[in-house]
Amino acid sequence: xxxxxxxxxxxxxxxxxxxxxxxxxxxxxxxxxxxxxxxxxxxxxxxxxxxxxxxxxxxxxxxxxxxxxxxxxxxxxxxxxxxxxxxxxxxxxxxxxxxxxxxxxxxxxxxxxxxxxxxxxxxxxxxxxxxxxxxxxxxxxxxxxxxxxxxxxxxxxxxxxxxxxxxxxxx
Length: 171
Description:
The structure is a single chain. By secondary structure, this protein is an alpha+beta fold. The protein has one domain: Roll (Thiol Ester Dehydrase, Chain A), CATH 3.10.129.10. The protein is about 15% helix and about 35% strand. The protein has two helices and seven strands, in the order αββαβββββ. The protein has helices spanning about 10-15, 80-95; strands spanning about 40-45, 55-60, 100-105, 110-115, 125-135, 140-150, 150-165. β5 and β6 form a beta hairpin. The longest helix has 18 residues, at about 80-95.
């Protein structure tokens, strides 16, 4: 079976409704928390560690919801939203791999912010490099990620961890 290697905004919205990977499996958040407009590339091979990679994009417009409240008179995209987008994409990777369960962010190693996303920006690009995928009793991915705005890298995160769980009752 050949896996789809790119996803449109409509595909991602289907994922947020639980329609892409099936009931009870990985979902992306719905808008406004969906921080991705499209996945331009996803592969289970290649990348920095040879374990897979993912590239996604978010179009920036001055009317995005977070600019109105973060901060009044000094609008900037919250850095935590870029970090969350990277977790969203690692969880998407697990669902795309066919691993069952609901995704949960489990943490990260070092995170660095060296820039910002302003309303004048045009495009945010996320790059995820899969380091390890554990399949079994625990389904987990560990990845490194970066966020770029208009071609300039502004955030990095090492050791992004996301798991998928068939039951989150005791989580």
